């Protein structure tokens, strides 16, 4: 382990802001043309992105959050958190760097770290490409005290690899610095996050912001006239009424017998898909324990198009997490302690990340839809059954938002109180917001 660097520690104030405006994005599932219909289904281009992180990082983090809050909803962005950690690894050294990279699923082999950063650079460029009906943007910014000399190599790397903006911030005026950062975040998230940074003081030396913005429309719509109150079985004893959307259409579908669950892929415009995973009664624990990168690849590969009658609840889910308490469960410890070696960021040897907060909100409703013409597309099968099978998400389920087969943008578990009417009644697609904050401060005197 790395050695302590004196009795005084300069907490590094890294603020990771994540915001996402959602109708869930997703992965393009495996297409089976032989099962397609008289109407031609739009084929999404396959993007050759190399995943910037192991999918197992997302699921390991999910399990850590689920274990800490077994009866609560979960919603977070593995991509945002992994991007923040990857940026930190650029300035980390010795055991601190090794723990971050291992936590992200990278081994010690030569070139793996550079491959991680190059993959993020490629992904950032692809996320920014224009797509009809879908907007997705991942961005970063550093607010740095002029009194702290930051290594030129670190600044060059975050600007080149992560397209990060950098700004001087005078933390001697905490109120002014707080306004500066919050104004930036509000602009980047189109006013959806306006008060991310709180309680700055003059000990801060750096704030790092990470945000995600996502907005999409359903490829085929849920008619609000078909939305009615139905029972949602939180547990075998607890039942609540929720607004349940209904639509019959051609959806991606896979029955995973090994994990006793059904997977439904609901496509969006812009070649994106939301995955809804419904375990059999009493099998949520089995499903959660079986989540890994191999499982996700199986779902994406084996899903086929079939006509379903889908019942999907309108919902909003919130999540707020102190990652400095969660990431150590994944082996990322030193960065939050006096053992932190962040000398790749600054020559100061007594800095550490004192706080890393991640918050997220997602909403799903009928408004994340395509124009009316799309709803008129009719699909038939050569040997279609007379009646369409029903998939009713009326008990706790898991939602994944993935892209390019490998990049998990968001992960959610929907349980009881999580289900409620959307946070806003404005006419916009379902949306998700998620801010993350980390702090680095000056040394404290004994």
From TrEMBL:
Keywords: Hydrolase, Protease, Signal. Residues 59-417 form the Serpin domain. PROSITE patterns: SERPIN (PS00284). GO terms for cellular component: extracellular space. InterPro entries: Serpin_CS, Serpin_dom, Serpin_fam, Serpin_sf, Serpin_sf_1, Serpin_sf_2. The keyword Protease applies. Transmembrane segments: none annotated. GO terms for biological process: proteolysis. Residues 1-27 form the signal peptide. It comes from the Eukaryota. GO terms for molecular function: peptidase activity; serine-type endopeptidase inhibitor activity. PANTHER family: PLASMA SERINE PROTEASE INHIBITOR, SERINE PROTEASE INHIBITOR, SERPIN. Belongs to the serpin family. This is Plasma serine protease. It comes from Lynx pardinus (Iberian lynx).
């Amino acid at each position: 382990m790395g050695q302590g660097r004196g009795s005084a520690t300069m907490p590094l104030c890294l603020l990771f802001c994540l915001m996402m405006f959602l109708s869930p994005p997703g992965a393009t599932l495996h297409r089976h043309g032989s099962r397609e219909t008289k109407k031609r289904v739009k084929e999404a281009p396959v993007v050759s992105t190399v995943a910037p992180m192991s999918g197992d990082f997302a699921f390991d983090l999910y399990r850590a959050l689920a274990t800490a809050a077994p009866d609560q909803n979960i919603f977070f962005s593995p991509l945002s958190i992994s991007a923040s950690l990857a940026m930190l690894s650029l300035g980390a050294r010795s055991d601190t760097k090794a723990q971050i990279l291992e936590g992200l699923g990278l081994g010690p082999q030569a070139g793996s770290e550079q491959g991680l950063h190059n993959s993020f650079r490629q992904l950032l460029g692809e996320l920014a490409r224009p797509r009809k009906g879908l907007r997705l943007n991942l961005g970063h910014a550093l607010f740095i005290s002029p009194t702290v000399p930051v290594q030129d190599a670190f600044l060059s790397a975050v600007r080149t690899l992560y397209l990060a903006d950098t700004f001087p911030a005078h933390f001697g005026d905490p109120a002014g610095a707080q306004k500066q950062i919050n104004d930036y975040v509000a602009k980047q998230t189109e006013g959806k996050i306006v008060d991310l940074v709180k309680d700055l003081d003059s000990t801060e030396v750096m704030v790092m912001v990470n945000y995600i913005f996502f907005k999409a429309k359903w490829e085929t719509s849920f008619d609000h006239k078909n939305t009615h109150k139905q029972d949602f079985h939180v547990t075998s004893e607890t039942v609540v009424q929720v607004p349940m959307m209904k639509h019959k259409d051609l959806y991606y579908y896979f029955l995973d017998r090994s994990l006793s669950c059904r997977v439904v892929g609901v496509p969006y415009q812009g070649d994106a898909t939301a995955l809804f995973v419904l375990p059999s009664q009493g099998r949520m624990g089995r499903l959660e324990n079986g989540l890994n990168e191999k499982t996700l690849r199986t779902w994406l590969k084996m899903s086929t198009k079939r006509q379903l009658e889908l019942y999907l609840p309108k919902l909003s889910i919130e999540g707020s997490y102190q990652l400095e308490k969660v990431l150590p469960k994944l082996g990322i410890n030193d960065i939050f302690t006096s053992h932190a070696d962040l000398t790749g960021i600054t020559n100061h040897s007594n800095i550490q990340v004192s706080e890393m907060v991640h918050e997220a909100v997602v909403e799903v409703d009928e408004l994340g839809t395509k124009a009316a013409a799309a709803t008129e597309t009719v699909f038939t099968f050569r040997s279609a059954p007379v009646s369409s099978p029903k998939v009713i998400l009326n008990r706790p389920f898991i939602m994944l938002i993935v892209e390019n087969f490998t990049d998990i943008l968001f992960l959610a578990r929907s349980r009881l109180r999580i289900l409620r009417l959307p946070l806003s009644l404005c006419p916009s697609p379902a949306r998700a917001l998620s801010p993350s904050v980390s702090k680095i401060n000056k040394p404290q005197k004994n």
